[in-house]
Design a protein that fits this description.
Blueprint: H1 3-27, E1 39-40, E2 44-46, E3 53-54, H2 63-75, E4 79-83, E5 93-102, E6 105-118, H3 126-132, E7 140-146, E8 160-175, H4 181-187, H5 193-226, E9 229-230, H6 235-255, H7 260-265, H8 271-299, H9 305-318, H10 324-333, H11 338-356, E10 359-360, H12 365-404
Parallel strand pairs: 3-10
Antiparallel strand pairs: 1-2, 2-9, 4-8, 5-6, 5-8, 7-8
Helix pairs in contact: 1-5, 1-6, 1-8, 1-10, 2-5, 6-8, 8-11, 9-10
Amino acid sequence: MDTRRFFGAKVMAGLTAAAVMAAAGSCLVMAEENAGYIYEDDEIRLGKYDGLTFSAELDDVTDADVDEEIETTLSYYVTYEQVLEGEAKEGDIVNINYVGTIDGEEFEGGSAEDSEVVIGEGSYLEDFEKGIIGMKPGETKDVEVEFPADYYSDELAGKKAVFAITLNYICGDEIFPELNDEWVKENTESENVEDYRASVRKELEDTAREAFETAREDELLSALMKGTEVLKVDPEKVEKDVADAVAYYESMASMYGMEYKTFLEAFGMDEDSLKTELSAQAEEFEKQTVALLKIADQENIEAADEDVEAYYEDLAKDYGYDTVDELKTDLEAEGADEDSIKSQVLLQKVRQWLIDHAVWVQPSAEEAGAAEADDAVEEAETEEAVTEEAETEEASAEEATEAVG
């Protein structure tokens, strides 16, 4: 794959896909009756947009949040006591090397060293995991497997392969890493624990700010569209938005080496249902665009050349380009023109204008309490669902054991 062309296509398709999906979260509302429109023509009845309110708040990052994040990170570096005797059995975590071949030839992605496998978990093919059962540390064994006909990789689907598996050791007790300067230097970009904690706090604060800014913008756009009625939307623009969003999903499938259909099925979708959903979202996105451009007209908001260049610089940074010129070359190759980029910049400036002229309204104690209660109920329901699923799996396992017995 031509990586640069892939990213060029991904930029254009991704921008539209992200915008369409974001618009769906903020614009699926109906205009209020008798809203007192402040501007009307044959395309739009524009409601109030100056002084819109929002209640989103920026969450504080506490020491406990930092500790939790660090604990989570440390858990990714857990190692195991190496058990070098006995035989591997169902449920064991084992460390293995393996080399896969088809017709005697190794294939891409079929080999690895020091891989940890939970036997019976299903992360690997069933025959692969079953083949490890009974192996002793230091033993090498050939295991024959057949990839399912619907395997995500077309090159492997339905093929028979042989894996030469070496069991390095059976994993015993967990060894949790100690947070100290040595570990920090070896596994992070920080020099010591103090610097590392500071960097973790900054990352959490950046994430919290991004979440706040997204929630604030969603609230304001929702409020804008609630008081606005868009009478005309260009169907060709809607179709193009859908096509761009589909292209984004197709590029993602390609990146993972999957068929588009298989990629969608992994997310519980098919092409028809996705297009139906995207069409509804794209129409709402175009309505939002009509409203924002009308505000630009009313407030004389323009996208200056320096605004466009700054936008290019941000895109180049986000998508890993070394220079802005390289990004521009790829965008041009994918059919992007200056007008489309300038339109993106203008919409961004109008959204920022709405934010600059918005009013923050702190939720009342009753509203805050209700929100906390809703969160508690949702968390309880999630825990209950997890418990029920575990109980169901346990019951199924007992039934299976009884059947075998």
